[in-house]
Amino acid sequence: MAIEVVSKSERETPFWTIGIYSLSLFLFCLTIFASAVLFYLNERASNKIETLNSQIVELKLLEVEKKFRQKKEMIEDFQTLLKKHKTPSIFLSSSEGLFSQTKKLAALIHPYVQIVSLSINLEEPEVEISGATKSLTTLAQQLMIFEQEPLVKDVSLSNFSVTREGKLDFNIKLVFDPRVFASAE
């Protein structure tokens, strides 16, 4: 028996198969290329996000630091105001003892003198008192009390009048030694 070798004729591959194969190969290469591009863009975007986040943190720190400086300046300004602030309420509070010891106006007021109004000028250490009393003797004693006080530099009486009820209305201007208000700070 003899073996016959018969050559098979090559079958031609249809055009559409070659087209599909070529298209598949092209799409495969395009997918790999697109993946590489997307990977690159993803890395670049991640780096950009990290950079922007660090810039945001820096800006927030700068903003917080700026607010902190503003608050610090406000506190320092307020401290300066408090140091310069004079409190005449200490001067006006009630006291027991001599005026030169307590520096409280109540120590200088005669018991029968009624103060109607009071005006204090801290810059010029002056006090203007409007008051009333029942007798001229009491008013004279009040003026003597003011004049005998060493911390009172000047006493002046003005607008002296008698009311219908028989009371004496008066205005007195007192100029104090600056130390009186300096101790009230």
Put the structure in a nutshell.
This protein has 185 residues and is of the alpha+beta class.
Protein described:
- The chain has 185 residues and is an alpha+beta fold.
- The chain folds into two domains: 17-85; 88-182, Gyrase A, domain 2 (2-Layer Sandwich), CATH 3.30.1360.
- Helices cover 52% and strands 19% of the residues.
- It has helices at 15-84, 88-92, 99-102, 136-148, 179-182, and strands at 114-121, 126-133, 152-162, 168-176.
- Strands 1-2-4-3 form a four-stranded antiparallel beta sheet.
- The longest helix is centred in the first third of the chain and has 70 residues, at 15-84.
- The protein starts with 14 loop residues before the first helix and ends with a helix.
- The mean pLDDT is 83.
Strand content: 15-25%
Oligomer: single chain
Q: How many runs of DSSP E, i.e. beta strands? A: 4
Uncertain segments are none
| CATH architecture assignment of the largest domain | 2-Layer Sandwich
How would you describe the shape?
rod-shaped
Read across the widest sheet, the strand sequence of neighbours is: 1-2-4-3
CATH class of the largest domain: Alpha Beta
Helix-strand sequence: HHHEEHEEH
What is the alpha-carbon Rg in Å?
A: 50 Å
Number of domains: 2
Please tally the helical runs, counting DSSP H or I stretches of 4 or more residues.
Answer: 5
* Average residue pLDDT: 83
Major sheet characteristics:
4 strands, antiparallel
CATH topology of the largest domain: Gyrase A, domain 2
CA-CA gap between termini: 136 Å
Within CATH, the superfamily of the largest domain carries the name: General secretion pathway protein M, EpsM
Structural class: alpha+beta
Helix content: 40-55%
